[in-house]
Amino acid sequence: MTFLEYVLIGYVVGILTTAPVGPVNIMAIQHAVRGGFRQGVYVGLGAVVADTIYAAVAIFGVSAVTTFVEGQFDLIEIVGGALLIVFGIKIWNTHPHLTSDGNGRDHGFIGDATAAFFMAITNPGAVLAFIAIFGGLGEFRPAHGDHLGALVMVAGVAGGATSWWVIVSAAVSHFRARIDDRWLDRANHIAGFLLTAFGVLIYLKLALELLL
To answer: Could you tell me if residue 18 is left (phi over 0), alpha (psi between -120 and 50 degrees) or otherwise beta?
Structure first.
């Protein structure tokens, strides 16, 4: 297969693994509503870094890293659940105003991207999903030892994931002018509730696993 084909396959995988609505999608939408296009992209880029790492782990078949992730599955879920609850409560208690930053100043690339990165990297299901997807590609996956082909496919994954965040942020920010502060408060409450709910569900799942 050609490098172009590897890029296209990786691009599709990147979109498919990013598109499902989850905590990071909710966070990106909320930030795009509050701060505009760039704020949504900032959040997305943090998740892209995490997804790219997991994609690289999966496609290069680094068994030691994969074994570590599987062995620490519960610990990673506990940390991830705590982060979701903290972020959810923080967002619920935030009352943003579209006119508060009169100069249109960004809310901070590093903070938004870092938060999204840790939310994405503490999702142990992500690396397992990538392993399942790349494992199922068969002959459409770079052959063992084709490191350049693997890198090209990982780059395609990063490109697909980035495209998704750009599209979502652009669509949400397009309607920003129609949104007032009361709508933002409702959006914050919904986003905060859903993020907290995701975290609580993780702990409920762990509790059920201990009882059964």
So the answer is: alpha
